[in-house]
Amino acid sequence: MNNKYELIYEGKAKKVFTHDDANKVKIEFKDEATAFNALKKEKFEGKGKLNCLISARIFEILIKNNIPTHFIELENENTMIAKKIKVIPLEIVLRNTAYGSLCKQTTIKPGTLLSKPLIDIYLKNDELNDPLLTKDRIELMNILSSHDLELIINLTLQINVILKSFFKNIQLQLVDFKLEFGYDFTNNIILGDEISPDNCRLWDLNQNDIIVSLDKDRFRNDLGGLIEAYTEIHRRINDFLKPN
Ligand code: UDP
Q1: What is the CATH number of domain 86-241?
Q2: Is the CB of residue 101 below 6 angstroms from any atom belonging to ligand 1?
Q3: What is the pLDDT of residues 156-173, one digit of tens each?
């Protein structure tokens, strides 16, 4: 990145830089993958670019469906221009199918289809290991008003309807995903962060009776083939969106 732009924030998967316009930022996607609160770390050449391109396509779909997001445009293959937001320190996870931490913390069996989407809200705080919250705990911490919390939950449910059907079109089961929201300069709540195989679980519907993860579980569970899986997701999205 041209050093004219100042690094505002560096996370595990992205770097955020200033933009000439004070209401915008440049978000650069990194090749590093982390899991288990960064206890596990590895570099995958090309992951940043794939996540940036996948996220951009998904944000465009959401924007067409009237979901407010921070995405403005791609600057290059691994950098996007986005609206600057004040991030709400919550991780909103929506689950359609039971997997991951839900199955480690409850008696629900992996792969169980949930009769309605489950929303789990975690505190975005690495030091505390992103604990699962309750509505009362969120209220106690004064992170946001109950009105804004309801708004975020409703947006997450709407995003799920859009994404579930989009991914089904390209033979992928949207198992679960994590979202982050923030306030833009007019104080409106908009979707931030990224939507990519790093924060969604996507299972290949072309496989019968076996779970084939095309997401970060390939890294978490040492399955190998992470770049191949992300490339496949990118290919299916582009093929589907390609004008005939
Ligand atoms: N997730 C994420 N960041 C986190 C934790 C979870 O993006 O810090 C995503 C994860 O990729 C999955 C969903 O949220 O799509 C649910 O994850 P879960 O709570 O099952 O945690 P995990 O099993 O990944 O530890």
Answers
A1: 3.30.470.20
A2: yes
A3: 999 999 999 999 999 999
